[in-house]
Write a sequence for this structure.
């Protein structure tokens, strides 16, 4: 029975798992759980993942959620996966665990806080929360600085590695969510961090063509959001002139 | 192997690493990084952990590692005397441990620790108490997390993953919940009592790691005693704060 992977491609951890499976030639069935239409709350999905989040996998009778746990499981369960994704060397492996753990409370929290409160929430009719967005951005900037000065100080990829690991896919997919911001904001936030920008490019290249293919829906959404924001600001400009 | 463990016993993940080392008879040197005196942001400590957090371990003076889950896993793999139930080699059980440890970051850790910090500990560090809405949101998330522990994570047995024996996940998550001991007795009981399995699991984990669990939590209970004495004369808990707005 093939591996089932429950995802929504708008979700950063979902994309990480998909790209990883594709780049490693893992045979799987992608099952869409549409967050926008609240499919994660359906009883059928609750039976797969009681936390009602994506991604989740089902391998035979084994169910697993939390993307880092999933990535590690796939590295261990599928012998064709090259060792650089999750090295057997205990020191290298520990550093990967360390950055994946750091990610939860730093890059992830900052990115989600900013993008949700400035773009996704307001465009879905939720009240915007400028304070939460500001705090999200502060944490994001601190996290990008730590990536630039520490996690990427010794090599092209995280923790000084010459080849990508599961940590690079996970964290780069998170940063890609910033593509939903305006071009101006995205550039303002990211461009000071040269190593980070290069690392995103290196990770994309190392997982081509799957990285771009899996991010297709994000770029479609980016186009739609940027058009809507442009229309809203024209309307507001007209209103203010009346 | 020379192991240095940089901790502050008021920190939940610090306690988890200490208890784990002691229960497994691991030889190590405990070095206090006093958060209340801002020692975690001193240049000497920043050289050890640039994130300026505890715990951190340094192995043989060279290998530095931070993030408590990564540390616990490293110790399980590096020290052959550690019994396998702490971090089973079975890939399914091991994955479940990774899963609950990851879930922990954004749920129990984000709620229990944040609630206690924002309502009780921040003033101890000279910081103002945060708005009661922050405490309210933390408590909501805490209650959701406790429900998930009660109804899902503890549904198959005494412990989180290996149902009859504790793993690193049990030590870690129970140490997080212990931070709630800093709340008033009334708030602590109000929040925890509905969750019978969770209360039993805390007790089971404590017993499985005795006497080290209580010894490592000694300082927390000293602080609790002081705080509750003060609360008795000047109520500090956030429910009283709400009524002042």
């Amino acid at each position: 029975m093939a591996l089932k992977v429950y995802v929504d491609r708008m979700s950063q951890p979902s994309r990480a798992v998909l790209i990883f499976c594709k780049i490693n030639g893992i045979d799987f069935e992608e099952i869409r759980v549409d967050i926008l239409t609240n499919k994660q709350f359906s009883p059928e999905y609750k039976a797969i993942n009681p936390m009602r989040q994506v991604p989740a996998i089902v391998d035979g009778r084994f169910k697993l959620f939390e993307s880092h746990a999933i990535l590690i499981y796939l590295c261990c369960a599928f012998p064709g996966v090259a060792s650089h994704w999750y090295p057997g060397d205990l020191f290298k492996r520990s550093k990967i665990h360390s950055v994946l753990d750091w990610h939860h409370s730093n890059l992830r929290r900052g990115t989600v806080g900013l993008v949700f409160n400035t773009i996704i929430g307001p465009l879905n009719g939720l009240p915007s929360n400028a304070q939460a967005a500001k705090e999200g951005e502060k944490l994001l900037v601190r996290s990008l600085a730590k990536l630039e000065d520490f996690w990427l100080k010794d090599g092209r990829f995280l923790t000084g590695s010459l080849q990508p690991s599961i940590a690079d896919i996970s964290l780069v997919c998170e940063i890609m969510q910033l593509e939903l911001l305006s071009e101006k904001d995205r550039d303002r936030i990211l461009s000071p961090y040269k190593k980070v920008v290069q690392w995103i490019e290196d990770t994309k290249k190392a997982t081509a063509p799957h990285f771009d293919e899996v991010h297709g829906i994000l770029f479609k959404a980016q186009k739609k959001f940027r058009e809507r924001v442009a229309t809203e600001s024209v309307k507001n400009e007209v209103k203010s002139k009346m | 192997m020379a192991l240095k463990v940089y901790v502050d016993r008021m920190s939940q993940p610090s306690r988890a690493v200490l208890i784990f080392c002691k229960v497994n008879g691991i030889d190590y040197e405990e070095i206090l990084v006093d958060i209340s005196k801002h020692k975690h942001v001193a240049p000497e400590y920043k050289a050890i952990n640039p994130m300026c957090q505890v715990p951190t371990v340094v192995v043989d003076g060279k290998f530095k590692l931070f993030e408590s889950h990564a540390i616990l896993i490293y110790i399980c793999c590096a020290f052959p005397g550690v019994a396998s139930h702490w971090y089973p080699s079975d890939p399914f059980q091991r994955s479940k441990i990774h899963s609950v440890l990851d879930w922990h970051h954004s749920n129990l850790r984000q709620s229990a620790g944040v609630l206690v910090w924002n309502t009780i500990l921040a003033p101890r560090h000279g910081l103002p108490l945060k708005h009661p809405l922050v405490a309210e949101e933390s408590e909501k998330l805490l209650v959701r997390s406790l429900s998930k522990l009660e109804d899902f994570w503890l549904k198959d047995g005494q412990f989180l993953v290996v149902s009859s024996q504790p793993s690193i996940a049990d030590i870690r998550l129970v140490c997080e919940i212990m931070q709630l001991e800093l709340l008033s007795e009334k708030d602590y009981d109000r929040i925890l009592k509905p969750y019978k399995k969770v209360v039993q699991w805390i007790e089971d984990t404590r017993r499985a790691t005795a006497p080290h669990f209580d010894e490592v939590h000694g300082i927390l209970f000293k602080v609790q005693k002081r705080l509750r004495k003060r609360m008795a004369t000047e109520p500090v808990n956030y429910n009283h704060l709400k009524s002042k707005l």
Summary: Chain A touches chain B at residues 50-51, 62, 64-70, 72-73, 76-77, 90-91, 94-95, 97-98, 101-102, 104-105, 109, 146, 149-150 (CB under 8 Å). The mean pLDDT of chain A is 94.
